[in-house]
Structures
1.
Amino acid sequence: MSQQEAPTLAPVIVIDLQTGMFDGLLEPPIHDADGTVARAKDIIGWARSEGRKIAFVRHDGPEGDPLAPGEPGWPIWPALGQAKDEPTFSKSVGDAFSNPALGEWVMGQGAREVILLGAQTDFCVAATMKGAMGAGLGVTIVSDAHSTLDSPVENAAEIIRRHNREFASAGASLVTTSTLTGG
């Protein structure tokens, strides 16, 4: 997909790129944390230059969780440079579309498609893709701008590759950061 082929009104949804995914205080940082942030920033900059809307999704973990409201790991990672007019939608399960306000916001943009990136590939990114498709939206996933942690049976890079194949099989469009942004 080239820059011209990106869905015209599709907003960018940044999933769970929160401080706890990067700071390494309670859990290791996600795989290729610095690269993920750099690519996310490239996409955010591209979206702004294109006049696209951007929304951030923040996971609200249960009490005692590193991503629980008020915990140091809970805020959106400051390095992403979220603008004051870019909304944050909270969720407490994997699917960001479980928060009806996100779906209303997307529809308010006149969009029938969304562009997804973030964390974690095998949990919230996968669940949000399914939720978006279940809501009748087209989905583009930035294949090199989502990440996760190693599992006991697969390293993060393998999980990401496997999920990219699964995303495509499910009907999502995959695009790399450089192809999407023209950079």
2.
Amino acid sequence: MKLYGIRNCDTVKKARKWLDDAGIDYEFHDFKKDGLDAGQLGHWEQSAGWEVLLNRRGTTWRKLPDEVRDNITAQSAHRLMLDNPSIIKRPVVEHGDTVSVGFNADEWAERFKH
């Protein structure tokens, strides 16, 4: 399992604590510090959808000009997420062949039970 996010994000901290407490091994990738390549992002977009990945509730989104927000497309969202990884909803988890976005303790308990 690989967990992608930003180290100081509260949701990522909760997700990592949950995994640690559950004794589930994972690799953490800080995409703000360690980067994110277009191929990886493309895989997530195909698996989860760009609309799910794009965090429209965060500060980064709210700081964008209205023209950018009002005319967002799959292609412009892809470029935006590569240029500003903090606009990606977190965490992104690759587990087996699946990609999930966000953290919900109840869903994770069901998904990752041993």
3.
Amino acid sequence: MIAFSHYDITLLLQAMARTIVLSLGGGILGIVGAVILTALRLSEMRGMMPLRVLAVIYVQTIRRIPFIVTLYIVFFCTGMMGVDVSATAVAIGSIGLIAAAYLCEILHGGVKTVPVEQVEAALVLNLPLWARWRYVIAPQAMSAVVPPAVGYLVLFIKDTALASQIGVVELSQAGVILTNRGLPSAQVFCVVLLLYFAISYPLTCLSRLLEKRIAVH
């Protein structure tokens, strides 16, 4: 059995923390972006038509571009513009850009599952916009949104490994560094696998808990 040194353990824990930061930061940006994009796509105001079209184009385009390509585009564009940001910040921003597009599609689809009759009934009752969303649309849409959204975020945790291409030392890159130092590859990456599982499993449990609470309500 391999014996990890203090340096090895420190490297793995730091890389695990960086993976969590990438996933959490990119996820938060993605959720905020998805809400904005969905609001634009659902807007029926005439003056919002150009923004609505741009939102649709953004979602349909970004979802068809591989994450690594988006990562390189953001990385090189920030460099050409002279913006001084860390590789970690570039990775978080790239994750947020793609997550916003995918989560927008999930959120938009969930909202569309709400029966039109119920939305029209809320309008007949003269409920204000916030009340329609709070009491009619959101509770019903969540059952269709939560499982795929959490599932997507769990999958995206693994995609953070691509951040190593611009110099971010996350979990997979830490495994490569340790194997390059002569440690057995199989054992090192078994540990890396367990650390990825430790990050993603709580999200899966949270998804199940939210599904149960939604079902009760």
4.
Amino acid sequence: MTAFPLTWLYAPGDRPHVVTKALAWGADVVVIDLEDAVAPDRKEYARAATAERLAEPQRVPVHVRVNALDGPWAAADLAALAALPGVTGLRLPKVSCAGQVRQVAVAAARPLYALLESALAIEHAYAIAAAHPSLRGISLGESDLRADLGVRADAGLDWPRSRVVVAARAAGLPPPPQSVHPDIRDLDGLAASCARGRSLGFLGRAAIHPRQLPVIERAYLPTSAELEHAETIVKAAAADQGAQALPDGRFVDAAVVAAARRTLSLARRD
């Protein structure tokens, strides 16, 4: 696996057999979903089944997406799940302000990941990203965001996407993963969308079906040319050859070296 997760596979919490399969599909992170994937009359069962599953550590990192923090189920989700050995992170949907993150951080000693899904959340993106040391990442929930903004064309989300990338960087967080591609049959569209996301500064992507995982991984792993270029930069920096060390005359400063090292780290998979 790379130093950064590239694939985040969602599985519905009320379908334990699907969770079992998801854990074996090779995703970097499995996300057990108690929110959108679970009907209201199945919420309690999903919570209980997830608590039973995560009473012991799992062989891959497992996050749980709890229900919306301002809804009727989130408090019970956090109380039942936050301290379990198998929970390596909590994903908080529909976060709209920094106070929500801080409130959860006090109650749950786990890494937190905030999903920004409204215009208000985008306006508060940096405040949310910098809200608490327990917050380890932010990302978009694009389906709800589209509805909130009334956006139809994909280009209408370019500014919110760039905003969340900038906010994460400014707060010292990893680059955000892309939101899910909802059409599990459209692998060509998924690949094109991943390429676009990578160009905007995203790193990795959430998936809702295992067939999407290899497409996401291919899109975000560096090419051989990118690896070769990164190695050249790192070697030049190690040799202390100065700011014009590259054969093509381009400058090599600390930021360029850091980016090259990240590229190399992405190639090192188990």
